[in-house]
Amino acid sequence: MHNTDFFRQKRVLLTGACGTIGQELLRQLLVDYGVAEVVAVDNNESEIFFLEQKFLDHPHCSFLLADTRDKEKLCRLMRGMDFVFHTAAYKHVVLCERSPFESVQTNILGVQNIIEAAAENRIERVLFTSSDKAVNPTNVMGTSKLMGERLITAANSSQPIDGTIFASTRFGNVLGSRGSVIPIFREQIKKGGPITLTDHEMTRFIMSIKQAVQLVIDSIALAQGGEVFVTKMPVIRIMDLARVMIRELAPWYGHNPEDISIDVIGSKPGEKLYEELMTQEETRRTVELQNYFAVKPAFASLYKNIQYTYPDMISDTVDNPYNSANEPVLDQDALREFLYSNQLLEGEPGEDFEPDQRFWGDEKS
C-alpha cells in the first residue's frame, strides 16, 4: 500500500464508479486510504443503487446519478473536492464503432467537461484513465481515448502555476474484468468447450484489477502535470492462457481437459495481434521509473517550468516502444502462478451473466 499520507483527509470525486476499475478504486480509497470523503457518480441507476448497498458502512461516501456530458452538474459536484478520478467511458469497441458520435460525446466531450469543471473549481489534481487502444488507434474507441489524453495534456499546459495538475494513465488488459477474456474462457470451459481463440500468436500485457487501480492511485500522486503513465506488466500468449485455464478449470466443472478443444476463429476488424502501450515517437520523451514509464508532453507548459523528476527513476531515456510483441512472454507455469496469486481462477463464476463468446457485429444470421 502506497501514498496513504498523500490521500489522508482529501475529498475525492470518482466518475464511472460502477465500472470494474471504478468499483475497485472506490474500495481501495475507502478501505485502504484515509480519504475524508468520496463522491461516487455514475449514469447507471440500478448499478449505483446496488453499489451504495455494498458500502453502507462508509458514511463518508455518497452515491449520485450524474453524466459526464452534463458540465453544469460536474461543476456542482466538484465544489470542495481535492482530487478527481475520471474513469467513466464507453469502452466496448463494436458499440463505439456502431455509434461513433455517442463515443465522441462521452469519451471526448465528457473529458473536456471534466477539465472545465475542474479548472473552474481549482481542483488540485485530475487523473484520466486511458487505454492501450489509444496507441496507434485502429478503432473509434481507441481514437476517442487518444483525444481524451491529448485534451488532458493540453489542459495542463495552459494552467497557471498554482492551477490544477492534469495527467493520464494508460494500461492494458485487466484480467477478470467483465467482458474480458477470462470470464469468457471460463464460461466456455464450464459448458465443455470449445474455447474460441482469434489467433495462435496473439499476445497481451496483463494485470489484475488491483494492480490496475494501484497504477491509478500511484499516478495521481506522482504526476507533475500532462504526463501519461504506463505501468510495466508481464506479457502472455492468449493461447497459453486458454491452455492453462482448460487444465485448471475443466476438472472443476466435471470435464476432461483433453476433451475441450481450442478453435482458432481469426482476428476481428480493429483487433491487434499485439498490444502497444507506447509509440516510437513517444519513446523520445519518455522516462523510466521502477514500476512505470512516464511519457512527457510533446509541448512545454505555457506557465510552468516542470522538471519531471520522480522517485525511483531509472533512466531519462527509453529506446524501444513498449509493445507486447517485443517483450518476453510468461511460460505456462508462471502464468498459472499469476492467475492463482491474483485470485483469477478461484471458485465459481459470480451470479452476474457472463457471455461465453464475443459478438463483433457481423455474425448474426
Q: Which secondary structure elements does this structure contain, and how are they paired or packed?
A:
Layout: H1 4-7, E1 11-15, H2 20-31, E2 37-42, H3 45-54, E3 61-65, H4 71-77, E4 83-86, H5 93-98, H6 100-120, E5 125-129, H7 140-157, E6 165-170, E7 173-175, H8 181-190, E8 195-197, E9 203-208, H9 209-222, E10 228-231, E11 235-237, H10 238-249, E12 262-264, H11 280-283, E13 286-289, E14 292-295, E15 313-315, H12 332-341
Parallel strand pairs: 1-2, 1-4, 2-3, 4-5, 5-6, 6-10, 7-9, 8-12
Antiparallel strand pairs: 9-11, 10-14, 13-14, 13-15
Report on the architecture of this protein:
There is one protein chain. The protein has helices spanning 4-7, 20-31, 45-54, 71-77, 93-98, 100-120, 140-157, 181-190, 209-222, 238-249, 280-283, 332-341; strands at 11-15, 37-42, 61-65, 83-86, 125-129, 165-170, 173-175, 195-197, 203-208, 228-231, 235-237, 262-264, 286-289, 292-295, 313-315. It is an alpha/beta fold and 365 residues long. It has a domain at 4-172 and 208-232 and 277-322: NAD(P)-binding Rossmann-like Domain (Rossmann fold, 3-Layer(aba) Sandwich), CATH 3.40.50. Strands 3-2-1-4-5-6-10-14-13-15 form a ten-stranded mixed β-sheet, sandwiched between helices. Strands 7-9-11 form a three-stranded mixed β-sheet. Helix 4 (71-77) runs parallel beside helix 6 (100-120) and helix 8 crosses helix 10 (238-249). The termini are far apart.
Structural class: alpha/beta
> What is the CATH superfamily classification of the domain at 4-172 and 208-232 and 277-322?
NAD(P)-binding Rossmann-like Domain
> What order do the strands of the largest sheet run in, or round the barrel if closed?
3-2-1-4-5-6-10-14-13-15
Q: Give the topology string: H per helix, E per strand.
A: HEHEHEHEHHEHEEHEEHEEHEHEEEH
The CATH topology of the domain at 4-172 and 208-232 and 277-322 is given as Rossmann fold
Largest sheet: 10 strands, mixed
Distance between the termini: 50 Å
Compute the number of strand runs.
Answer: 15
Oligomeric form of this entry? Answer: single chain
Low-confidence stretches: 347-355
* Average pLDDT: 89
**Helical percent range?**
25-40%
CATH architecture of the domain at 4-172 and 208-232 and 277-322: 3-Layer(aba) Sandwich
Number of helices: 12
CA-atom Rg in angstroms: 21 Å
Supply the CATH class of the domain at 4-172 and 208-232 and 277-322: Alpha Beta
**What is the strand content?**
15-25%
| Silhouette | globular
